[in-house]
Amino acid sequence: MNKLFLMVMVPIFSALIACGGGKKGGGNSQPKLTFEDTGLESHIVVQLKAYDDEEPLYAATDKGVHALIDNEWQLLTPEEWSVNAIEFLDTNHILASVSLESGEALMESLDGGETWEEVANNFGGEDQEKIQNLYFDKDTKVLYAIGRNVLAQSEDEGREWTILEGEWHGFASGLSAVARHSDTGDLWIGGQGAIENPVLRQVKVDQETEDHSASIAELLEAPSVIKSIRFFPDENSAEHGERVLASGEGGIVHSPDYGKTWLPLFVNETSRFYFDVIIDPDNSNILYTAGWSKNWETPQELRLEISPDSGKTWKAYRHNDPELLGGVWSMTLRIEDEKKVLYLGLCKGGVYKVVLP
């Protein structure tokens, strides 16, 4: 990297300096990374999502749904919407779970977010329950949703819901994560139980439920919560050619045998949250994550953590801004101009963009 390049880049971006994070890898030979602030400061960015890499990136926030168009975030909904989750059923067909002053609602757009209508539905039975997260299976055309302690499915785009596991308005802090294994058809759900314990359950295709919560609690002690579930391609895995990753408060854990045993992958004793883990699309040995120390108003560093070896070692890259509310709540990786670009959604710090080497 020559001096002219540094003179141009430093005023525009703040460099992330490589340093040890979790288990230390070797040396500081990795290239420096830079963060670019794309906007949405003061928003809690709960989810970053797009239909595909050719379509705009959307942000679900506590102040409405926004879309990144021509490098500018555009508000597509009333700012009064506190958005819990969004999901794409097609290129322009979007569903949004929204908390309003009047209660919970499921909103729908058929034109990419330009206009919205409320969907009349029975999620919650007679009394509408908050939809915590949504997952649409493009192959089966079935929509799944989780509530406080319930997993339900809809075959008519969110109108009629059938309970698969749990009950409406159940006694729990709330579910957060839902994922479907494409080969087995199993649904995995995660969140927090009534006593602030981590919850992770596997709902099999025959609707038999296997509860992994006790095993997870041994690795992520209460208070804890599961925020994401990922299936990790791994040819050395004992079953299905992959591991299962679960991340949340206290770090990241994994199972090498599809849930029979659970092991720590990247855990901490400070209750630092890890809302998600991204697996590199070209090399499944490379993992990306970023965390949040539970603090709503005090600045904290923005720190991207990368493992080159499936989680055995990690390196951290810190963004040098002592005033930033840098805790990360959401992540997504996109291919833009043939480059891998990681977007990080912060809790009141905006959305940052990192072009990966």
Can you tell me about this structure?
With 357 residues, the protein is mainly beta. The chain has a single domain (3-355), classed as Methylamine Dehydrogenase, Chain H. The protein is 5% helix and 50% strand. It contains 2 helices and 27 strands. Strands 1, 2, 3, 4, 5, 22, 23, 24, 25, 26 and 27 form an 11-stranded antiparallel beta sheet that branches. The chain has a 4-stranded antiparallel beta sheet with strand order 6-7-8-9, with no helix packed on it. The radius of gyration is 20 Å and the shape is globular. The two termini are 14 Å apart. 41% of the residues are buried.
The CATH homologous superfamily corresponds to YVTN repeat-like/Quinoprotein amine dehydrogenase
Q: Please report the number of helical segments.
A: 2
User: What distance lies between the first and last C-alpha atoms, to the nearest angstrom?
Assistant: 14 Å
- Quickly give the structural class: mainly beta
The helix content is under 10%
Number of domains: 1
How much of the sequence is in beta strands? Answer: over 45%
CATH class: Mainly Beta
CATH architecture: 7 Propeller
Radius of gyration: 20 Å
